[in-house]
Write a structure and sequence with these properties.
Elements (H helix, E strand, L loop, with lengths): L14 H7 L4 H6 L1 H14 L5 E2 L8 H4 L3 E4 L3 E4 L6 H6 L5 H4 L1 H14 L5 E6 L1 H10 L7 H9 L1 H25 L3 E6 L7 H19 L6 E5 L6 H7 L3 E3 L6 H8 L4 E6 L8 H15 L5 E5 L9 H15 L1
Parallel strand pairs: 1-4, 4-5, 5-6, 6-7, 7-8, 8-9
Antiparallel strand pairs: 2-3
Helix pairs in contact: 3-7, 8-10, 9-10, 10-11, 11-12, 14-15
Length: about 325
């Protein structure tokens, strides 16, 4: 049976999550292990998924590094001041995640206890390019112009910044695994902004450092990005037992680029869950047909569940995949 889980499977499309958000900010939940554990478990209790993913946020490592941020309603994360100078880059701190992010590790321990091994728990962190882009842009971007300007104009400083993030993330994921995470995913959500040659020069060595560090710890590693159809072979080289595919490439074609010796995850367009159920299930069926029943396919979306998605559609999709592949 093909395993199923969904990125952002805990979130605003669920009434149980919205009820908690009415009383708490996103960061409040992330910093409160009891609340974060409760939210992590909501989709496991309500949907037939085959994994839980830690409820947290990619940006949590920024603050202990000396990069303050907050979430602004209607805008998303805002980093103020952003990281745009060599001196600012060189002032950033490396830190001990077992101290500064102990609340995340406690969430993992709580979730593992409450799951009682019903399904495995996935931990996660952001990749150096995506974290650096947030820090430099000061928030979301459509062009990554400031990031690329620093990358091209101050390559030595860029590599110092990316290496700092790689070291921090590798330590953080190691601590998550020690706390009980049974797999870890590296999110490089924005890396599709890079060409293959730029990825190889500016991102690959740093992401590779993370996977090289954690590969000896005995848990599966997942490597996710969007808009990555032109860099799949480079992502494979950077690392990961499982490579994420988004909906922009048919699953079998993406798998051929990744290589048959790696597993793949994906790759239904999350907007299909907003339309008629029949259309959603046709899309899921095509993904499964392209996977061809080969071992190593994890069914997922090409990105996260959108907030306006109906919970029943998510339930129906998970049941359909299991029924088709049982």
């Amino acid at each position: 049976m093909t395993p199923v889980w969904f990125m952002r499977q805990a979130g605003r499309y669920m009434a149980s999550y919205r009820a908690i958000r009415e009383q708490h900010t996103l960061l409040d939940i992330c910093r409160n292990p009891e609340l974060a554990a409760q939210v992590t478990l909501q989709p496991v209790n309500e949907i037939d998924v085959d994994a839980a993913i830690l409820f947290s946020d990619l940006l949590l490592p920024l603050e202990p590094m000396g990069i303050p941020f907050d979430f602004v309603h209607g805008e998303g994360p805002v980093i103020d001041p952003p990281v745009r100078t060599v001196s600012r880059i060189d002032s950033l701190r490396r830190f001990e995640p077992r101290e500064s992010l102990s609340h995340v590790l406690e969430t993992i321990r709580l979730v593992r206890t409450q799951l009682a091994d019903r399904v495995p728990l996935i931990g996660f962190a952001g990749a150096p390019f995506t974290l650096a882009s947030y820090a430099i842009e000061g928030g979301p971007s459509s062009t990554y112009a400031r990031t690329k300007a620093l990358m091209y104009g101050e390559p030595a400083a860029w590599h110092r910044l990316a290496d700092t993030f790689a070291t921090v993330v590798a330590d953080y994921l190691t601590a998550q695994i020690e706390a009980g995470a049974q797999a870890v995913q590296v999110f490089d959500s924005w890396v599709g902004a890079l060409s293959a040659s730029d990825y190889r020069e500016f991102a690959l060595p740093h992401t590779q450092k993370i996977f090289t560090t954690v590969q000896s710890l005995g848990v599966p590693t997942l490597h996710f990005g969007t808009g990555t159809t032109t860099i799949l072979s480079e992502m494979r080289e950077a690392g990961g037992d499982v490579i994420g595919l988004d909906w922009r490439i048919p699953l079998d074609e993406g798998w051929a680029q990744v290589g048959e010796d790696r597993a793949v995850q994906g790759n239904l367009d999350p907007t299909l869950l907003l339309g008629p159920v029949e259309r959603m299930l046709r899309g899921a069926y095509e993904v499964l047909q392209r996977a061809g029943g080969r071992p190593g396919h994890i069914f997922n979306l090409g990105h996260g569940i959108l907030p306006s998605t109906e919970l029943d559609h998510v339930r129906t999709l998970a049941r359909f995949v299991h029924h088709q592949t049982s």
